[in-house]
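Possible regression after last week's pipeline update?

I re-ran a chain I had predicted before the update to compare outputs. Posting the input and the new output here so someone can diff against the archived version. Not blocking, just want to make sure nothing changed silently.
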Amino acid sequence: KRLESSTTEIEALKAQLEGVGEHDKEVEQAAAAAARTHEEDEDKIAKLQEQLEIVTRDAEGHAQQHELAKAEVERLNSELVASVASMTALRMEVSGQMSALTAENEAKLARITAQGEADNAAKEKALAQVIELKE
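New output (post-update):
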């Protein structure tokens, strides 16, 4: 009976061992699957890091282009301000010259008019004397 009982016990232990072996195989399979998933995740992370580096370089390039464009706009704006100031000064100079010429022309016109009136008065006086002498 003891032998039978030991045999039954041995059979039960064998069954347990087989169960443990099956469980070990499942654990090994799960570990292998986890390792594959981990490798896939690392690959994905590496690819994402590559993409991030590319996007970062692109963004830095765009930032540099933006700064260059901004500097160019500032330079052009400065040139525009200088041009406007130069044109304003030139306009003021021309306006001053025109005013001086206008005043000079008015003075000449006044002299010519006064001379013409004086000449006319002299001619009228001479004509009057001629008429008086004839009479």
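Follow-up from reviewer: compared with the archived run. The radius of gyration is 57 Å. Marking as no regression found.
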